[in-house]
Amino acid sequence: MEKEYGVEELIAHVLNLMGGQGISDNDYVQKIGDEYGSAVSRIVVYISTFIAFFNYLVFGDEDVNISIFKNHSSFIAAYDPRRDMYSVIISNAEKLAKERYLGYVTDFNEDGSFHELFQGVGPFLLSIALHEVRHRLQKKKRVKMFSCNRITRDKRINHFIKFRKYLYAYEKKTCREGHVWKKIIESRYSPKEFDADFIDHYFSAEIIGRGRLSLSEIRTILLLSPIRLFNE
Ligand SMILES: [Zn+2]
Fold first, then answer.
1. Spatial CB neighbours of 8, under 8 Å, sequence gap ≥ 6
2. What is the CA(1)–ligand 1 centre distance, in A?
3. Owning domain of residue 52
4. How far is the CA of 2 from the centre of ligand 1 (A)?
């Protein structure tokens, strides 16, 4: 049977396996540490290494292009489809290091009942990286996207999709009422984001809820397809 990893084990394994491949320049990591503190440089190294690893899991040994920016947007990480480049943003890693992320992830059962799972920093950083790699898979047309009206044969998956659909409707309404610029709402709640948000949510529920996942199970989640689920 294939080895399964708990969150901490997975993180240790990935860091060891990639040997800091996310950021090849160790002096630069040192510089970030000197300027922002080791907690911030650790977050930056973790996210870039996780991105490099997930990218490797689905694209094989293709070169991975990750840039580190000091200040940019409100995201910790992003994928730029035009330049085919991932980025990690230090100022937002700094925010995360200060706030510490104490969030919950909703997990669903087949019958639609649900419960909340505590999401620590580790699973949160893994899910961010997974989200960005899903965006690259969308761009490279390696996956069919999940949309808000998609119904699959997997009853549990359908609850995740429905949840995301209502969440998006609610958040979009709140944004409109708060007079957020229409273009910002459209890009934040686009079909691409719906698909990537659904995938990272499902991954978090799986790894936290089950406690352990094998690398091929993670790969399967990254490549999850509504068509494949439908045909099974
Ligand atoms: Zn996204």
1. 122
2. 33
3. 4-231
4. 30
